[in-house]
């Protein structure tokens, strides 16, 4: 199995790359600038410059791209569409890191986390942009996608426990470390449990 991590220099991307390398997988970091990851195989290109040929060698592509700039939030949709088009109609799988805002907080699935009164205002624009990408990828039956959401409190400095729990669409916990999330991403890359589905990762 060959795995590519797009935006591998980022916080999530770097830890997913590290997790995959430590598990002796064939990993390539796709980065715009100088490679800062532990991966020895590198494609140095802007995400929008990637071609079908660039991604053709890989069985799984992890989309770890993120954008918090409120003036560039449309890039969530634009980058996802670009990557989706590149793997359209193939057996390749696209694993997308999404946000927690689109998760439901009620059993009836009528209230999303982003719409609750206590959701921080400063994070709403990003959460809404990521919620939009989930709705967009759900329309793509030509792509073997998996959308993966972290728990609401996504802890970069959190410890790696090596364990986690998952839900399909609901908030079932408060936090998860980036390291445990990375393990869940690599587990999904290997196992392919959630094809054309979303799941969320929480501390166990």
From TrEMBL:
InterPro entries: NAD(P)-bd_dom, NAD(P)-bd_dom_sf, Polyketide_Oxido-like. Residues 8-187 form the NAD(P)-binding domain. It comes from the Bacteria. It holds the Pfam family NAD_binding_10. Gene3D superfamilies: NAD(P)-binding Rossmann-like Domain. This is NADH-flavin reductase. The lineage of its organism: Bacteria, Bacillati, Bacillota, Bacilli, Bacillales.
């Amino acid at each position: 199995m060959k795995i590519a991590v797009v935006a591998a220099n980022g916080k999530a991307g770097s830890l997913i790359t590290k997790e995959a390398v430590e598990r002796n997988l064939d990993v390539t970091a796709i980065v715009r600038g100088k490679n800062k990851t532990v991966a020895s195989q590198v494609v140095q290109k802007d995400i929008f410059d990637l071609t079908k040929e660039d991604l053709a060698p890989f069985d799984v592509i992890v989309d770890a791209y993120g954008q918090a700039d409120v003036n560039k939030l449309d890039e969530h949709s634009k980058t996802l569409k670009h990557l989706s088009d590149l793997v359209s109609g193939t057996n390749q799988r696209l694993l997308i890191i999404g946000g927690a805002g689109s998760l439901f907080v009620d059993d009836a699935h009528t209230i999303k986390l982003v719409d609750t009164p206590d959701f921080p205002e400063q994070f709403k624009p990003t959460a809404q942009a990521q919620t939009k990408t989930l709705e967009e990828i759900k329309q793509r039956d030509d792509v073997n996608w998996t959308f993966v959401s972290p728990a609401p409190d996504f802890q970069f400095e959190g410890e790696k426990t090596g364990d986690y729990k998952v839900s399909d669409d609901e908030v079932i916990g408060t936090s998860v470390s980036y390291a445990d999330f990375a393990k869940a991403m690599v587990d999904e890359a290997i196992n392919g449990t959630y094809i054309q589905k979303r799941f969320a990762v929480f501390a166990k």
